């Protein structure tokens, strides 16, 4: 009965994944969605996953989108090292371009302790929003305030240096160099043996303008189909009080796809 239910979920998920439309990509990379996939083991080990999502829409033009995310982590028994990558390809009436992507590296030391220091760096671009490039580097501290078999909660807070360049064909380029605070609250709970829910909130702002932030909320539902295959639905909402260029203050993404774990 369980195998039959999983098979039904698989075919339903596969069908839905070809029809859900993605609107705008978020600006804040959600590291927590991969880092909290599993509690750290006590021995050295690798874990990883790769995800694919596809969408096709036809209005004035035919738009085909193909996305891939590949994440890997190495845990030494005390420290965890993350490598997160993403690239989205868009084909508009036969003309292909690379729309957006990111590369993120993070080290978390003494991860199984209540307080865990971190170092990270990231490169990102997003042609949909006019973000030509963004480079950032910084440090933070992770505080795990809840760690039980069915629910886990953590807070991360730190500072980062951010360089970014914005511009479109209609607008001149704008360059910024900023020091920002970055914080997030993440809670993961298991709804069943094969389903879990992740809820994350990010708050990033300059220390001198702390109440003029970039806020991101992400909700993610993972449904395990088999040991190495998971169906994921993710909704991300971002509000930027002061966008650098003439882009919407509120953007959102609805994305779903199949995740292959290794």
Number of strands: 12
Q: Which structural category do the helix and sheet elements fall into?
A: mainly beta
- Figure out the total of helices: 2
β-sheet strand percentage: over 45%
Poorly predicted runs = 1-25
CATH class: Mainly Beta
- What portion of residues is helical? under 10%
Describe the structure in your own words:
The protein has a twelve-stranded antiparallel beta barrel. It has a single domain (2-261), classed as monomeric porin ompg (Porin, Beta Barrel). The protein has helices at residues 2-16, 32-35; strands spanning 45-58, 62-75, 80-92, 95-108, 115-126, 131-147, 151-166, 174-190, 195-205, 214-226, 229-240, 250-261. The protein is 7% helix and 63% strand. The model is unreliable at 1-25 (pLDDT under 50). By secondary structure, it is mainly beta.
Short recap of the structure:
The chain is mainly β.
What descriptors fit this protein?
262 residues; mainly beta; Porin; twelve-stranded antiparallel barrel; 12 strands; 7% helix; 63% strand; disordered N terminus
Which helices and strands, and how do they pair?
Blueprint: H1 2-16, H2 32-35, E1 45-58, E2 62-75, E3 80-92, E4 95-108, E5 115-126, E6 131-147, E7 151-166, E8 174-190, E9 195-205, E10 214-226, E11 229-240, E12 250-261
Antiparallel strand pairs: 1-2, 1-12, 2-3, 3-4, 4-5, 5-6, 6-7, 7-8, 8-9, 9-10, 10-11, 11-12
